[in-house]
């Protein structure tokens, strides 16, 4: 993306809606939190619904970041900075979304498994799921099976998400799923798993509903599986 | 006789710098002695981060017939690219060597490297990564240290190239706690007992805001594996 010429300061409020959204994509890409917060406020002042600001300006911009990370154009710090900028925008939108009764598609409990403290990918998935209209309960890092079970009992989510970045911790996902099976809970939840060392085959082998390569795929998969679940409930 | 910066005696040209090992690896020519006709039956393909350690071990007479080539160490931050790089290297050298051994642990490939080795019929190192095999894979697992961040000697020397810059801490020091906020200490797994490397490691711990601990591990399972492989051709 083009660097802005520092000589020529861009005044966000002077841009029309289309230009502003495009500029916000650039600012998100460059991890500029204050600019994103300002852009969100301007769009709200212009009468945009909070849900529209979220999906068109923030989620849209974050998708580009996600694609460029997948393609090796961006590395971890750029993703972290972009996520941080998006978080700034989300903080303004969240209370408004609640007030305006924006649609909630479903609820997800997510956490990194026991022994693992990698959380950047998980945090990104949480944010994109929230951006897509899911309610997300984030259990943080280093979660033992008890922690997942308690949270499912307490939160009654539709989806359980587990993240692992270490070869040594990914097998723990199977421990969690096996425990769910043993307690007769497995079919009550959609189980999604992710993290760089995983793959589709691993997801199938441990009995997850799906492995998701990145946050965008996680959102699409979650939506599809929730829809399928509603249909089968309606039919049954 | 020349000496590498680590003090290892070598008879050949001087070893590439750590930076070259990081970005380019080590060419095979470095360990191939032109007049040794009976040599050249076993080739080690290693991560560039292990070059110095492998060469130090190779200084033992019982291991000196092992040839070595290294892939760039910076594949470490992109483990999904390691299997293809290994395949290319193995295919390149297959015709020349009776045995090829891979000096890589899983390194975050999620079992892909093991699957590839099975397909190619070659052996690799056990365990998840170099932190584990220097310490001893079983001992490392038993420690179950969740909140420790490890550095080997190579990573201590190449800290800026492997940790500080790729994580963007040179440009955005404010990200430090997003990365390391959940860690308690930095553990220097030292292959050789060298006070300068220890001092440097301690400074890295300070930069990351972590407590410092040091363990002299020697070469751990790396040495054991190389000794086993050296005999496999006898
Ligand atoms: C950044 C990083 C770190 C940071 C972590 C900071 C943090 N707060 O998370 C730091 C530097 C602290 C770190 C520490 C360690 N790390 Co590290 N780390 C990485 C690195 C470079 C990138 C991971 C990352 O954040 N990616 C960015 C995000 C956006 O991508 P992602 O995590 O893949 O997530 C996406 C998808 O996978 C998916 N996804 C992820 N989770 C989920 C969950 C669900 C439900 C779904 C649907 C999808 C999904 O969506 C995400 C967004 O698109 C990887 C190498 C790599 N390229 O993967 C090594 C790597 C994972 N680390 C590794 C290691 C070994 C360690 C340490 C042991 C190293 C050490 N020196 O001590 C410690 C671990 C300690 C511990 N107990 O956990 C190894 C693992 C090797 C192995 N055999 O498993 C790797 C592969 C590097 C390597 N080759 O050696 N690490």
Features:
heterodimer; A: 236 residues; alpha/beta; Methyltransferase, Methionine Synthase (B12-binding Domains), Chain A, domain 1; Rossmann fold; 2 domains; five-stranded parallel β-sheet; 10% strand; globular; B: 234 residues; four-stranded parallel β-sheet; disordered N terminus; binds cobalamin; DUF1638 (chain B); DUF1638 domain-containing protein (chain B); methionine synthase activity (chain A); metal ion binding (chain A); cobalamin binding (chain A)
Write the layout of secondary structure elements.
The complex is a heterodimer of chains A (236) and B (234).
Chain A: H1 17-29, H2 33-45, H3 50-70, H4 76-99, E1 106-112, H5 120-131, E2 134-138, H6 145-155, E3 159-163, H7 172-182, E4 190-194, H8 200-206, E5 210-211, H9 215-235
Parallel strand pairs in A: 1-2, 1-3, 3-4, 4-5
Helix pairs in contact in A: 1-2, 1-3, 2-3, 2-4, 3-4, 4-5, 5-9
Chain B: E1 2-3, E2 9-10, H1 18-23, E3 42-47, H2 51-58, E4 67-71, H3 82-93, E5 99-103, H4 112-120, E6 123-124, H5 130-135, H6 137-143, E7 148-152, H7 153-157, H8 159-164, H9 176-180, E8 185-190, H10 195-208, E9 211-216, H11 220-231
Parallel strand pairs in B: 3-4, 3-5, 5-6, 7-8, 8-9
Antiparallel strand pairs in B: 1-2
The complex binds cobalamin (B12).
Cobalamin (B12) sits between chains A (66, 76, 79, 110, 116-122, 124-125, 161-163, 165-167, 192-197, 212, 214-215, 218) and B (76-79, 106-108, 128-129, 131, 146, 149-150, 179-180).
